[in-house]
Amino acid sequence: MKYLKLHPNANDITGIKFGRLTPLGVIGRAKNRHLIWECECDCGNIHRVAGTSLIQKLTVSCGCYHDECSTKHGMCGTPTYSSWIAMHQRCYNPNNIKYHLYGGRGIVVCEEWHEFSIFYADMGERPDGETIDRIEGSHGYFKDNCRWATPREQARNSKRNINLTLNGRTQCITAWAEDFEITANAISSRLKNGWSVERSITTPPTPRNLRRSLNQ
User: Fold this and answer.
1) pLDDT grade for 214, boundaries at 50, 70 and 90
2) Residue 203 is part of which domain span?
3) Which of 53, 63, 97, 163 is 20 to 30 A (C-alpha) from 152?
4) pTM over 0.85
């Protein structure tokens, strides 16, 4: 087959192996203008794929790798496998709706976790109602920085949260509010009004009827 001639400024990946795929030449462009490469897979099949998918490791074979994984670990379609796929999509697929929060900020998946079996060995089965969470939000996905967590736990771990330290203990405002049976809004309001951290957290809430009489 006669392949298209590349523009001088185009990234020529001819002959460079990506996973099991070796690009042979360009056959056209996708609707998003990305170059479509015809590749030869290690299994002998010919597969056509966007160059960006090769470079970002979104496509590593003609489909034979996925089939082998399905047979090998039997986890395809499970919540754990779905989390593994979604994690890579957020980090490496510019078309993913959350890419700007992950891959767009430089968040990557460690090299070992590009292999599902290693990810599964490190993280185990995904518990019901939980998804993967990075403990330190500015760092990527790797064993020591990840856990399975509930939406509530992840919300507390959000970069938008404000952590407060009292008596050597640091946690987010929501956690302090629960510990002292006060609303998080009350603590935030007190801090904005110039209260100290200790006073903002430990002062009991004013009874509603007393607040009403004070405002009359």
Assistant:
1) very low
2) 163-208
3) 97
4) no
